Amino acid sequence: MKYLYRKEHLKAGFNSENYQFRIGELTSMTGVSARQLRYWESKGIIESIHRSGEQEGRVYKFKTFIKVMMIKYYLDTGYTLKSAVKNVEEKQKYLTLTRHIIFSALNGIVEVDGTVMLDLGNFDDDGQQRLLAYFDDDQQKVRYQLIDSDQMGDEDE
DNA sequence: ATTCTTACA
DNA sequence: TGTAAGGA
User: Which PANTHER family match (predicted)?
Assistant: First the structure.
């Protein structure tokens, strides 16, 4: 068993603040026009950072990208902008909770017998067992495996 | 090249 | 909301 990544190495990659987009990029990513994005911002639905100095223009955070995607989804299924936004904002608190739990649970990425697995941290209160999760490509589902914590450091790099 | 605001359709 | 104008 070997650590491919430890928690601290995953942080930068999962830190959504590291991903920012200009309006043209957000438009091609979401299918929402620049006109709409500016209008939504004027209504307080989304936020952007105004870059000062050389490179003018709006900059959107990853969080905004997600929100725009979700609003677009509801618009496409026939909701008005107002109700689409309401739906999205109701769901956002659950997304936040989900993200908190998943990111705090994720302890690293390991490889066991050639299979890449997520280290989900201690399974029991006294820290004897570690919970690992991996994806079964054949059955298209998540599988779990327990491993003794004292084996976790083996073959470390 | 891209984005900005304003304004009219 | 789209589009065009006219600047940055």
Answer: MERR-FAMILY TRANSCRIPTIONAL REGULATOR (PTHR30204:SF69), REDOX-CYCLING DRUG-SENSING TRANSCRIPTIONAL ACTIVATOR SOXR (PTHR30204)
Which of 2.40.50.140, 1.10.10.10, 3.30.70.1120, 1.10.1660.10 would CATH assign to domain A16-96?
1.10.1660.10
Q: What are the sequence ranges of the domains in chain A? A: 16-96, 107-151
A79 CA – B5 C1', rounded, Å? 29
Q: How far is the CA of A120 from the C1' of B9 (A)?
A: 57
Residue numbers in A 38-97, CB below 7 Å of strand C: 39-40, 56, 75, 81
- Cα dihedral value A10, A13, A18, A22, nearest 10: -170
Residues in A 18-57 whose C-beta is less than 7 A from nucleic strand B are 22-25, 27, 34-35, 38, 56-57
Write down the residue that tokens 């904002």 correspond to.
Answer: A89
Nearest to A110 by CA among A79, A73, A149: A149
What is the per-residue pLDDT across A61-120, written as a single tens digit (0 to 9) for each? 999 999 999 999 999 999 999 999 999 999 988 988 998 898 889 999 999 999 999 999
The Cα–Cα gap between A74 and A76 comes to 5
